[in-house]
Structure formats: C-alpha cells, structure tokens
Amino acid sequence: NAVKTIETRKRDLVIRIADWTRDREEPSYHVEVYVGGVYDFNLSEVFRTKNAGKTKAQAKAEAVAFAQKQIASLL
Question: How far is CA 51 from CA 1, 20, 32, 41, 71, in A?
C-alpha cells in the first residue's frame, strides 16, 4: 500500500523496496532497512540494472532475496 509516512516504534523493523528503475542515469532497486524508525545504511543495499549489466528482473529478484535475508536475520 502506498503511504506518505509511517509512524514507527522502537521495536519496529521496516524494509522498504524503492523502485528507481525509471531513473535514466542509474536505474536500480533500493532496499532500505529502518530499525526502530532509523535508517541503517549498513543494512541497506542498492541493486543496479544498467550500470551493473543486469536486467530489471534480475535486479528485482536480488532485491527481494536481500530483503528476505535481512528480515530473517533481524527478526
């Protein structure tokens, strides 16, 4: 569901997958990890398409797999 903001608590884990594949310079999927409402750069990752020589489907599959791995390790 599309939302403008999310109110989080100290125990919340939020995984956000942002679709930036329409960006002409650096098409990619961004997997953003928020722990307790705070973005954690070290737990997040960017999966590029054009500049990494991957298709959109490959980058999407990698982003989903990474998000699943993060959920499994952080819960």
Answer: 29, 13, 20, 21, 27
